[in-house]
Specification:
Layout (H helix, E strand, L loop, with lengths): L7 H15 L1 H19 L8 H14 L8
Length: about 70
Amino acid sequence: METIEIPKTEYQRLQEELTLLKNNELLKSVNKLVDFLYQDRYGLYMGEYTDDLTEHAVDSGWEDEPSEWDKI
């Protein structure tokens, strides 16, 4: 087993950070806050809607690659 040495204050800070990251409710609240701030800043909110992004990715993929139809 390998060991490292860090100052006790840093170890305590890392433990506190880990505890915060394990708190799912806090993460959900922060994500919601980020959504609100984004909406206020840009006046746009996508939420979980990503269909148009998928369509754009497929369209651009078709344009980049030659197909058999190009040979006709």
